[in-house]
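Hello,

Following up on my earlier ticket. Below are the three sequence lines again, exactly as submitted.
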Amino acid sequence: MAETDSAKVSEHVEKVETRRDFLQLATGAFAAVGGAAVAWPFIQQMNPAADTLALATVEVDISAIEEGQAIKVKWRGVPVFIRHRTKAEIDAANAVSQGDLIDPEEDNVRVKKPEWLVLVGVCTHLGCIPLGTSQGETKGEFNGWFCPCHGSHYDSSGRIRKGPAPKNLPVPEYAFISDNVVKIG
Amino acid sequence: MSKFQKPAWLDNGVVRWVDYRLPIFSFVSHELYEYPTPRNLNYWWNFGSLAGIVLVIMIVTGITLAMHYTPHTALAFDSVERIMRDVNYGWLIRYIHMNGASMFFIIVYIHIFRGLYFGSYKAPREILWMLGVLILLLMMATAFMGYVLPWGQMSFWGATVITNLFSAIPWGIGDWIVTLLWGGFAVDNATLNRFFSLHYLLPFVIVGVVVLHIWALHVHGSNNPIGIATKGEQDVVPFHPYYTIKDMFGLGVFLIVFALFIFFAPNYMGHPDNYIPANSLSTPAHIVPEWYFLPFYAILRAVPDNFIGGWTTEWLGFVIVEAKLAGVLAMFGAIAVLFVLPWLDRSPVRSSRFRPMYKWFFWIFAIDCLVLGYMGALPAEGIYIVIGRVATVYYFAHFLVVIPLLAKFEKTRSLPKSISEPIFGGGGVAAAGAAAKPMEKA
Amino acid sequence: MRKIVTLLIVGISSMAVDTTVHAAGGGKTPPAHQWSHSGLFGTFDRASLRRGAKVYREVCSSCHGLRLVAYRNLIDIGFSEAEVKAIAAEQEVAAEPNDDGDVEMRPAILSDRFVSPFPNENAARAANGGAYPPDLSLMVKARPGGANYLRGLLIGYKEEPPGGVIVPEGMNYNEYYPGNMIAMASPLSEDGVEFADGTKATVEQMANDVTTFLSWTAEPELEERKRMGIKVILFLLILTGLLYVVKRRIWSDLH
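Thanks for your patience. The regenerated structure is below:
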């Protein structure tokens, strides 16, 4: 009795080593699926939390911005420039020949309403904040913005005109909720 | 052909290349595959590996929680609530961690009682046992500091009461230690910060001691329900696949229980007061530690005023030990006595199966621990004080009186010749010997 | 072995007994109510949540805060974005300092948390005769007895205390409050709130609804938790069953 038992043990071990039966494979696969499912919450927790996402959109009241003025609002940790452009600024932006631009783009694709220009205020060169929003700050050679870090000049449509920056100031996703309120993000 | 074969993957070229330079695969194979394990282990032997898995779960969830937690008195409570409300799956991770602490203690307590019942602390496993007690101590420190972090009412007042224990140490040393722990004049921001730091550190110290614990285990192998040493290949099976699958099955059962708590009664083992932000100007009506500390808390409170001081004053004319210190000493003594257990129990027989009297006293002791736990939860008044004291005295009597006396006077039953003997039944020595023979040829 | 299991059960149930001992603490144990959100498959009663939110806003919120809940969270329980924006805009919060460095007030928005009625505990005490109306965000989790206790408290006021009990000035008699003497006067009165869905606003109805609402504020994850729990338990039952069969097979040669 004992002899057959130990013989069976060795035979069994052999069987396990050479051929895993279907049931074991199924159990292993099932457990692996469970393991993967467990990993998901632990990865997901690193993504932005609900309170962070709640700040992903900002509603701004623009009724107080007079023609020719601009404001800076914080959105997702970076400044957004909102400029109420004058007729002259709009005309200047439209008058530029595309051939003169480093990053060619028509003004009318960069705005939803010509008098309102909304831009992410981060220089496309190395991430400094360009001057030109507040009154009294230099607007650079093209009457838009000027980045003091390495001397990039942007025009009244926020397009790069001179200096090391490769791209125009980006336009964030935004929408006019009403005439006076713009929702960014 | 031996059942202790090396796994096939050891023949893989890459494995062989690495193994020649760093024999990590051989190590795994030796300690987790071929590792000879008594064939008669019952399900109480599942709790060791289970504790190891829970330790990993606690570390993983803990590291994750630390990504969102803020250790500052003004922000800690709200940051925990932010985890519960805003962080993706934060509630899940926090409830796993919170209930995981309770599960860890349940598992480790069962693991300890298994050791007590089957005499796993006896030679040559004394160091293995002492390392285990050390792990328990580290777990208690870790759990205590972790409980402070949410900065609720119980966190704050638990921290205040427990740190004040050290003030019982005389000659000004105690007060010096308490101030050192606090980093201020009371439990405050400095305390919270250092507790967070240490709560993060200690689990890794536990991992280190666990490695030593397993190392010590693997020197002489597992004890077993019969408590006699293995005497050859017929008594053992390779760890893999026999015990890997058995541990996996046990893990599955445990996870079901664990999940029931996490998803359907996540606050059952907690205290409602800890959902009230800490208030240093108002103490809750009953300060109760987490359930796993209750027996020790009962022992702490059981010592009467001037217990030793009372009689020594009469005898010697001065107080040697104040009540507060005596309580603290008793509480730490309750764990310290476990360290010396291998030398208190001189009975040569390990397993209770062959110790008819010890078996009874084991169960009385287990009930005594439950009574202590129950008393720890109740307010210290009236009859509860008396019960608490009796249970405390019995706790120590079990180790210091009952066990040494049993070792001397108990008539133990005769032990089987080998582990395989009772398994093959009836055949006795002859059958065991026969079983051994084909193995020897292999 | 069976003995150990029995002992464990005794130990765990003794802990349960312990909780009730604390819950009693001078007041009667509040009656158990059948909550829609209790049980394995419980979910919050949406209509009750909506009514409860109204009770909170029109009655409780004059003294009690809900500082851990954000206005946006109301969208999760069926309020429309426009409704919640209007609810938020009724309150004011401090804005970022303006260009002159002054802090002005602005209407609250979705991402803000509920504005508390008092700026700090001292102000709250000063306005309430020395008593502190606690924040209600976690109240259901922060009291032994949870939702049943809260509901009991709201319906447990007695105009006439039992014989021989003297209620001091500024205090009220409540059967279920520990010690029976509570500074808060009975907050709910028949038809104190008008429900949009036509439900009659009895004291008990309002107590049930606001308790349901506060159960949600304390455990907003409850529904997701139970849903996930069912799946996890089912998965584990199957996996453990499979593991058991595999274990039996592997060990069969030894037995």
